[in-house]
Design brief:
The chain is of the alpha/beta class. The protein has two domains: 176 residues, NAD(P)-binding Rossmann-like Domain (Rossmann fold); 84 residues, N-(1-d-carboxylethyl)-l-norvaline Dehydrogenase, domain 2 (Orthogonal Bundle). 46% of the residues lie in helices and 13% in strands. The protein is built from eleven helices and eight strands. It has an eight-stranded mixed β-sheet, sandwiched between helices. It is globular, with a radius of gyration of 19 Å.
């Protein structure tokens, strides 16, 4: 039975995933490298809970109780108390593999470890552990407290028992799990990121302004936001990392990241989280 949830990484995705589990009555162990990142994550979770309260989704009297379910730590070894762990660190394969190797020695026997990877092979991550049958991809959408979809990716070694356990957990969280095969980008980013990359090419080549590129997809394709706005929300560094995974994974030039996307990342213009991407944020 899964009760206590471990979350590694307190960034944009990690704090959102911790929020989801704490909201659904799970004690959460949220782990990151520094105290200030953890404090920032908890402040974000509190702000988002108040936002849900104003929409009538959370009772005001429950907010402190939800927050108190989240235990903050900088020690990976504290995850020994978790019944399930999900990793949400940046899209860096070597970093993820290192974490999974360490977790494999920390977690209790039978505990499933999931990666929130948005494009990196789950099979390669699983191979780094002694129990690859207990490794699965669990890709939440951003923002995790709002978005219904969770992409579930089996490694070649993922057991049916592991898959069913995590699928049921998604349903209990009010999410809709969708299975995807373990290919670069899985389903959502195999489709979404080339569209965003092409939008960046349109800006790079002067086909349209940033506003017009977004407007044609907002009004013409009925998307909730334009692709450049969405890229800023996701993080341009994440978009670039996924495009690199697609490009190297398939060896197909259609996945080549736009030079403008790379230039923005090199300049530190990563989107909303740095207050500057394709748009400026006050």
């Amino acid at each position: 039975m899964i009760k206590t949830i471990g979350v590694i990484g307190a960034g944009q995705m990690g704090n959102g995933i911790a929020h989801v589990f704490a909201l659904h009555n799970h004690p959460v162990i949220l782990c990151d490298l520094t105290e200030w990142r953890l404090a920032s994550a908890l402040a974000t979770i509190r702000d988002n809970l108040y936002r849900q309260m104003r929409k009538g989704l959370v009772e005001a009297g429950n907010i402190d109780e939800i927050i108190n379910r989240i235990f903050l730590t900088t020690r990976l070894t504290d995850l020994a108390a978790a019944d399930f762990v999900v990793e949400t660190v940046p899209e860096d394969e070597a970093l993820k593999i290192d974490i999974f190797r360490k977790l494999d020695e920390i977690v209790q026997p039978g505990v499933v470890i999931a990666s929130n990877s948005s494009s990196i092979s789950i099979s390669r991550i699983a191979e780094a552990t002694a129990h690859p049958e207990r490794v699965i991809g669990m890709h939440f959408m951003n923002p995790a407290p709002v978005m219904e979809l969770v992409e579930l990716i089996r490694a070649l070694t993922t057991s049916n028992e592991t898959f069913e356990l995590i699928r049921d957990l998604c349903v209990k969280m009010g999410k809709t799990p969708v299975e995807a095969s373990d290919y670069p980008g899985f389903l959502i980013n195999r489709i979404l990121m080339p569209m965003i990359n092409e939008a960046v090419y349109c800006l790079y080549q002067g086909v349209g302004t940033r506003e017009n590129i977004d407007m044609v997809m907002f009004l013409g394709a009925n998307h909730p936001m334009g692709p450049l706005t969405l890229a800023d929300l996701i993080g341009l560094d994440t978009c670039l990392a996924i495009m690199e995974t697609l490009f190297h994974g398939f060896g197909d030039p259609k996945y080549r990241p736009c030079p403008l996307l790379r230039k923005y990342v090199e300049a530190g213009w990563l989107g909303r989280k740095t207050k500057r991407g394709f748009y400026e944020y006050g």
